[in-house]
């Protein structure tokens, strides 16, 4: 994958490989415009497919798997704008809004709008530069926030909230998100708990340790994908939460008594 200005808040990405798959748990809101190709965002309960011309907001602290690939003979290309807390705080100091309550934001999609079209068109010439001046980036990020406010009256409930996730039902969250490869600290954070409290509440809910439970759930999901969906080990190990194929194969054989490729016929 090629990225220009990848150290900045505005990034142009060109996916030149045939297929790119990763997990994200972004720490900043990201406003994304797809220029060509396709991006699929897979969450626990829903999958989004975005193609050329689509604009959407990925909220912070969102567990998801992202698949980027060419489409209609064109490579994956996109523009991504990180809306970092420091820039958002600075913006809302100048443009205050009412107190925002804690909530769990979801992916927001935006219909085509003249303001969005002109904004992203104005960014394209900057990607010919090796480094975009910070003053320009600051102006364009502020412009993006202003445009979102104009086209979505509820966007401030997402962008102007700076608190941490509130405490939620741990068992329900884990059952929905066990396939995402996160640290125990991140699972705790997203359920509104410290690491110590997370482990304590997890033990109460499942009567085992988080790591043992996660491994078993991921292997059960992998077994289902291999037997019922007729997929290959190389296609499923990453999606169910393992970092590499060899570790997955070792854990699978230890759990079921045979390697995962024994199910491929």
TrEMBL record:
<keyword id="KW-0238">DNA-binding</keyword>
<dbReference type="GO" id="GO:0003700">
    <property type="term" value="F:DNA-binding transcription factor activity"/>
</dbReference>
<keyword id="KW-0804">Transcription</keyword>
<dbReference type="InterPro" id="IPR009057">
    <property type="entry name" value="Homeodomain-like_sf"/>
</dbReference>
<dbReference type="GO" id="GO:0043565">
    <property type="term" value="F:sequence-specific DNA binding"/>
</dbReference>
<protein>
    <submittedName>
        <fullName>Helix-turn-helix domain-containing protein</fullName>
    </submittedName>
</protein>
<keyword id="KW-0805">Transcription regulation</keyword>
<dbReference type="InterPro" id="IPR037923">
    <property type="entry name" value="HTH-like"/>
</dbReference>
<dbReference type="InterPro" id="IPR018060">
    <property type="entry name" value="HTH_AraC"/>
</dbReference>
<dbReference type="Pfam" id="PF22200">
    <property type="entry name" value="ExsA_N"/>
</dbReference>
<dbReference type="InterPro" id="IPR050204">
    <property type="entry name" value="AraC_XylS_family_regulators"/>
</dbReference>
<dbReference type="Pfam" id="PF12833">
    <property type="entry name" value="HTH_18"/>
</dbReference>
<feature type="domain" description="HTH araC/xylS-type">
    <location>
        <begin position="168"/>
        <end position="265"/>
    </location>
</feature>
<dbReference type="InterPro" id="IPR054015">
    <property type="entry name" value="ExsA-like_N"/>
</dbReference>
């Amino acid at each position: 994958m090629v990225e220009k200005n990848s150290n900045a808040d505005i990034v142009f990405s060109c996916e030149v490989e045939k297929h790119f798959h990763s997990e994200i748990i972004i720490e900043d809101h990201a406003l994304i415009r797809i220029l060509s190709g396709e991006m699929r965002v897979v969450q626990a309960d829903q999958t989004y497919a975005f193609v050329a011309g689509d604009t959407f907001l990925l909220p912070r602290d969102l567990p998801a798997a992202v698949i980027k690939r060419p489409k209609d003979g064109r490579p994956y290309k996109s523009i991504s704008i990180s809306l970092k807390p420091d820039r958002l705080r600075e913006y809302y100091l100048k443009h205050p809004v009412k107190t925002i309550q804690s909530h769990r934001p979801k992916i927001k999609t935006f219909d085509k709008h003249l303001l969005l079209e002109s904004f992203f068109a104005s960014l394209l010439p900057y990607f010919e530069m090796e480094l975009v001046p910070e003053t320009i980036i600051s102006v364009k990020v502020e412009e993006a926030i202003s445009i979102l406010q104009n086209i979505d009256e509820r966007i401030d409930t997402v962008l102007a909230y700076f608190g941490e996730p509130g405490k939620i039902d741990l068992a329900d969250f884990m059952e929905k998100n066990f396939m995402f490869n996160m640290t125990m600290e991140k699972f705790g954070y997203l359920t509104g708990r410290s690491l110590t409290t997370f482990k304590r509440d997890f033990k109460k809910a499942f009567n085992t340790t988080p790591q043992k439970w996660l491994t078993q759930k991921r292997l059960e999901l992998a077994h289902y994908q291999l037997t019922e969906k007729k997929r290959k080990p190389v296609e499923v190990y990453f999606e169910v939460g393992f970092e590499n194929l060899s570790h997955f194969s070792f854990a699978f054989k230890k759990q079921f008594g045979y390697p995962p490729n024994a199910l491929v016929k």
